[in-house]
Design goal:
6-stranded mixed β-sheet; alpha/beta; 4-stranded antiparallel β-sheet
């Protein structure tokens, strides 16, 4: 499944004294099976952009095409589009409301009109995907869960809809290191083993560096950069001018180069930095 964004513009409260254009003429293609990191300073337009991808926001101008069909055309079934594109908001646990974990995860599939047997199968599969043991958690109140478990239950509710593309808005926000590692592990697994297309909004350059194959940088409502992590993170000066940073390994590599050490200009992963240091140390002892 592909998502094509054509010259998309969105203006909030048009014609009022509070009119504000959040994104300006954005064009992008999200290809099947990609893992994309969407980054940008607060107010850059990231959240506005992703809310167009399953029809929550209507463009002021431009189009969003899902498998070649205009999402906002009169004859488009938006419910079908939202089944294909699942959106997990920041702090999704705030949207948990049913009495039990199983009931909350089942809410979406039930609204699809599926049989009880199919709903149950989807709930069990979604629990397995987020590593919540079904028998242990199915009857537990969502409010008895830990922060990380609540986050996983909320994500399971979206996965139970069986989306082909999963959009995550700051999936690790507010989690402790253990919870963060669990969620990132789940997202990586969904992409690698299930082939789910993932678009992840994140302020963590290290998380983006470790996971994604493509980075899209938003700035002032427009796409400022679009490329591989290596292509994007080597432009540290331009990123900092937009209020962003580079991964920790890229910062350390830059400091070593300033000291005169031979470290590749595009190093951005800890493994690459470690190999460079080994060569430097080995050369010093040669």
């Amino acid at each position: 499944m592909s998502i094509v964004i054509e010259n998309l513009t969105h203006t909030y409260m048009p014609g009022s004294p509070f009119q504000a254009t959040a994104i300006h003429g954005v064009s992008l293609t999200i290809r099947d099976g990609e893992f994309i990191g969407l980054i940008g300073h607060t107010g850059s337009g990231k959240s506005t952009l992703i809310q167009h991808l399953n029809g929550l926001l209507r463009p002021s101008s431009g189009r969003v095409l899902i498998d070649g069909k205009d999402l906002f055309a009169k004859d488009t079934d938006k419910r079908e589009a939202r089944r294909k594109v699942g959106l997990v908001f920041q702090y999704p646990e705030n949207q948990l409301f049913e009495e039990t974990v199983a009931a909350d995860i089942a809410f979406g599939p039930k609204n699809l009109g599926l049989s009880p047997e199919e709903v149950d199968a989807r709930v069990r599969d979604a629990c397995a995907q987020v590593r919540l043991d079904y028998d242990t958690f199915k009857d537990r109140s969502v409010f008895e869960l830990s922060g990380g478990q609540m986050r996983r239950a909320a994500i399971a509710g979206v996965l139970a809809m069986q989306p082909q593309t999963l959009i995550l808005d700051e999936p690790c926000a507010g989690l402790d290191p253990r919870g963060r590692d669990e969620i990132l592990g789940l997202v990586r697994e969904l992409h690698q083993t299930r082939g789910t297309t993932v678009v992840m909004v994140s302020h963590s350059m290290d998380d983006v560096a470790a996971l994604v194959g493509r980075v899209i940088v938003m700035n002032r409502g427009q796409v400022a950069m679009d490329g591989t992590p290596r292509e994007v993170f080597r432009q540290g000066e331009a990123l900092r001018a937009m209020g962003l940073d580079v991964p920790e390994a890229a910062r350390l590599a830059a400091r070593l180069r300033e000291k005169g050490f031979d470290v590749p200009q595009d190093a951005y992963l800890h493994g690459e930095l470690l190999e460079a240091v080994k060569r430097i140390v080995g050369g010093a002892h040669a």
